[in-house]
Amino acid sequence: MTADATSALVEDRQPAAGPRVRKRSAYPRYLAGKVAGAAVSLLAVLVTSFFLFRLIPGDPVKTMTGGRQVSAEQLAAYREEFGLDLPLWRQFTDYCGKALTGDFGTSYQFRAPVVDKITEALPNTLLLTGTAFVLYTALGIFLGTRSAWRRGGLGDRVNTGLALTLYSIPSFWLGLLLIIVLSVGIGPLPGLFPTGGMESGGEEGFAYVLDVAHHLVLPVVTLVAVEYGQTLLVTRSALLDEMGSDYLTTARAKGLRDDLVRRRHAVPNALLPTVTLIFINLGRTVAGVILVETVFSWPGLGGLFYQALSVPDLPLVQGLFFVFAAAVILMNTLADLVYPLLDPRVAR
Length: 348
Hints:
The protein is mainly α.
């Protein structure tokens, strides 16, 4: 064979440069598109939050005076202090300009920067939602895999039925029910847990940790009971789709134990939709904890949002609404960015 023929054969066996470049550039383009979409969504939330809460009836300045007799001059001074005397378009431009720099204004009722109030309450919300998120995700994946692997059995029917029932129950109603049964007590059953709050007060060190954990039980149980069902159902459905695959039949034919086939082969491939759901649920749990925190008087972002709505404290409501929406958008974007790493076909 001549040197030219050998060179031509080598070139034919080498993949063309064009497709490889396109394959490498697919994910950056995908990444840029998702990040740009998230940025546009955040801007839309910023605009929406300004106009949406101005539809709430009531005068924030009169609410702040607590029903006291206040002169017109004092009301005008309050409105000037908080910029409520400016035209709506001027309030909007000032709000957007400051919000883009991280300044959401000053709370009407607390007379403190909105960012400071959010920063103060955020750790409490993360403690509650983080604990519940870990528990209901682990519980949903575990029960979902077992239900799918033994589909049609008694355990599958019980798990699926209970998950659907709890998933359909409003979180605030379940929370109130738990307070009545386990906090107040019914008949001979004494109250075992606090009715609300985050701490009893006066505790220090390890006793303080136990006190907070004691207050944390009922709100966490409420969130876990309502949220785990979705993870269970998605995991179960994804695993059922994988169970008919040829590679699982081949693994069994090679003599691998059923438990090993499930743990090493079926479950990892079935978790792709669940991974996406995990990110979405994380953002949704942070945004959807308002009712649970209000029912249990938990001093987090949800309780703060409820207090702000009652005034209405427009800067605080707008700032919290932006945080809740940003959490959902951020988690959805992270799910979109992680999914192609698990399944490269998504970014093509």
